[in-house]
Amino acid sequence: QVQLVESGGGLVQAGGSLRLSCAASGTIFSPNVMGWYRQAPGKQRELVATIGSGGDTNYADSVKGRFTISRDNAKNTVYLQMNGLKPEDTALYFCNFYREFRYIRINDFWGRGTQVTVSS
User: Fold this and answer.
1) Which residue of 24, 38, 85, 117 pairs with 91 in a disulfide if CB–CB is 3.0 to 4.6 A?
2) 33-42 pLDDT, tens per residue?
């Protein structure tokens, strides 16, 4: 089992910045992928960004150039630096951890989410 605890959400004006953190604990094997997803009211959960334990990253087109994902493997923590926030970034942001086996997603764990609200 892997437990994920997010922090850093809040209310910010458009154009502002926030930094989300997610600390993982429990039985953690590498390689793995950690990332952030978000879900706005009435919408499906969507990918924001992911980062592998080797440092490879993947971003949604909507956040490229504004958000930066990073991780500290020694602390089992992933970060999401969000700059240039827009009202459409308002959502509940979830931390995710998973491992792959033969391209199949296994050991899939989720945090409870942290709210990000961007006012116009």
Assistant:
1) 38
2) 999 999 999 9
